[in-house]
Amino acid sequence: MIEMKGLYAGYPGRPVLENITLDIRFGEVLIIVGPNGCGKSTLLKTACGLLAPSDGEILLDGVPMKGCSTKEVAQRVAYLPQSRSVPNITARRMVLHGRFPYLSYPRHYGERDWEAVEQALKWVGAEELAFESLPQLSGGQRQKIYLAMALAQGTQTILMDEPTTYLDVSCQLEVMALSRRLAEEGKAVVLVLHDLCMALQYAQRIVLLTEGRVRQIGTPEEVYRSGSLEEVMGVSLNRIKTENGWRYYYQ
């Protein structure tokens, strides 16, 4: 579990986050939404230790993160950025990168590492892609491999920045379904999304950021009924009841 208390963070000469208090819970999909430049990506980078807060505190499983080593944080929190380089290696080798926090240099992979890779590929349904070249895969296939890499890392918390960007609709839905499965297995899953309808459909809780501050934290029902999404994002939302629950759409 990650707890942020009175968090301030940003970049030299450019503060971004102000007084963020937020807990990231196991067994839950938490989705962060908000306008461009409001601090969503900065929040994820700070939560996984890539950015040091300028003030406030982050607790990782009850322990101050500032006292943890980079390796200790990486063994507890996996972070998938919005964009990354695509090395010319096989998908299986890419997933193996998730084992780096458990290895010293030079890296010598053991049976446990290869087992973690195979299990992760199977979990995301990408076993047949194991020996394919990463640059030859589609965007949706690569996203599966990156998610498998995070699973091989063996963390209880997974942070994903815009994991559905540039994917077609079927791949987006598959990524979101996988996220829900991860939460059902007890992991804490945090996503940054621009698609408000998808956020309302798949989140257990939603965090609405604006100008580096938390405007609202609540269930999809609470956030939808408050009207804050429409006010902050400048859109009009509606929904219909289906046999599978609410379906949201833009008017």
| Integer-rounded radius of gyration | 18 Å
CATH topology of the largest domain: Rossmann fold
How many discrete structural domains? 2
Flag low-confidence runs. Answer: none
CATH superfamily of the largest domain: P-loop containing nucleotide triphosphate hydrolases
**Terminal Cα span:** 37 Å
**Mean pLDDT, as a whole number?**
92
How many separate helices? 9
Strand line-up in the sheet with most strands: 6-7-8-3-9-10
Q: What helical percentage do the residues reach? A: 25-40%
Sheet with most strands: 6 strands, mixed
Count every beta strand, where a strand is a DSSP E run of 2 or more residues.
Answer: 12
Shape: globular
* Percent in strands: 25-35%
Briefly note the structural class of the backbone.
Answer: alpha/beta
Can you write the helix and strand succession as a string? EEEHEEHEHHHEHEHEEHHEE
CATH class of the largest domain: Alpha Beta
Question: In CATH terms, what is the architecture of the largest domain?
Answer: 3-Layer(aba) Sandwich
Task: Give a written overview of the molecule.
This protein has 251 residues and is of the alpha/beta class. The protein has 2 domains: 2-76 and 157-250, P-loop containing nucleotide triphosphate hydrolases (Rossmann fold, 3-Layer(aba) Sandwich); 84-154, no CATH class. 33% of the residues lie in helices and 29% in strands. The chain has 9 helices and 12 strands. It has helices at residues 40-47, 70-74, 91-96, 111-123, 139-152, 169-184, 196-202, 220-226, 228-233, and strands at residues 2-11, 14-24, 28-33, 55-60, 63-64, 77-80, 157-161, 188-192, 205-210, 213-218, 237-242, 245-250. The strands form 3 sheets. A 6-stranded mixed β-sheet has the order 6-7-8-3-9-10, sandwiched between helices. Strand 11 and strand 12 (245-250) form a beta hairpin. The longest helix is centred in the last third of the chain and has 16 residues, at 169-184. The mean pLDDT is 92.
